[in-house]
Specification:
Shape: globular
Oligomer: single chain
Helix content: 40-55%
Structural class: alpha/beta
Strand content: 5-15%
Distance between the termini: 51 Å
Number of strands: 12
Bound molecules: pyridoxal-5'-phosphate
Number of helices: 14
Radius of gyration: 21 Å
Strand order of the largest sheet: 2-8-7-6-5-3-4
Length: about 400
Amino acid sequence: MFEISQSERLRQLPPYLFKEIDRKKAEVRARGVDIIDLGVGDPDRPTPPHVVAALAETARDRANHQYPSYNGMGHFREAVSRWYRQRFEVGLDPDKEIVTLIGSKEGIAHIPLAFIDPGDVALVPEPAYPVYKIGTIFAGGVPYYMPLKEENGFLPDLEAVPVEVAKKARLMYINYPNNPTAACAGLDFYRRVVEFAKEHEIIVLSDAAYSEVSLDGYVSRSFLEVEGALEVGLEFHSLSKTYNMTGWRIGWAAGRAEIVRGLGMVKENVDSGAFQAIQFAGIAALEGDQRPVMEMRRMYARRRDVLVAGLRNFGLQITPPQATFYLWVRVPAGYTSAGFTSALMDQTGIICTPGNGFGPSGEGYIRFALCQEEERLHEAVERIRKLRL
Ligand SMILES: Cc1ncc(COP(=O)(O)O)c(C=O)c1O
């Protein structure tokens, strides 16, 4: 048998973040420990029943059994367009400015193939959702990392990007409400991004997967609300976190027509669109009863309060987030992210994610995902209280 060697692009990849955590988790579980997993950001509650019912009904219709269109059903794109108008007062042409995605990850990973040639630069925040970097590398591009620092409210310092890098950059990813830091961005920041993008002719890719996971009445803004944004960029959205639909794989990208078209051309050649019954379920989610979303927000706020109080009692420093279901927490003095994650896992069975897994500027932090029931979080707090460092 001949040797199977992987491509250079696969060999360049760091181990997938959660693979390493899964391995350690299996090790701790094998010791018989009752694990409280606050590692992965995957909503633990089910999809609202009316959304499931819409899928069940439309799955029976044979008209939905054939290939869907690569850019998504007209009905779904129209629902997205109505949602944008209602939610952000942004008008979008459903035919040219919106494309359905098989989850936003799919679009985030594919879009560099449309705009990056080998050696081109993409501005990528760090710490960040790893797919910005990996999508860039897969397209042969070179990520230029923009550190997200606490003193800047975890916003990238655009002035710190050297002019020669900005000139070469073709894409810039931004993500608010942010994973992993839970930071939020206002319209002022988005205005600066548009100005910067116009000056250097950079396509802006705003990942708004958590736009609806907002707490205490906070209302996230959209990059597309800012004047000029539709000339420079596109926004990714997802139904995954808003409607507990991570397993369904449905989202969209919306923005300037040529950018949407580029992504659509990649998709035309690598996938054949999202199952139509799932798109009908997506319409039911966007246009049906929104009370489950309001309940979801109250639920994450309660969970946040339990864990924030427990971590503060233990002496950890933390700013309670206004959006996302993540807590971004500084580790105690003398610990690294990995060291504290290990101590926590070994002594308490609680799993969190070491911040440096999201990029070097995440060193010194850990991330907790609030995707466990409140009583489990009380139990976690009780265990943390007994932690000995
Ligand atoms: C910041 C961010 N963007 C995008 C996604 C992808 O979500 P999906 O592909 O389920 O739409 C995630 C998932 O965890 C995320 O954290």
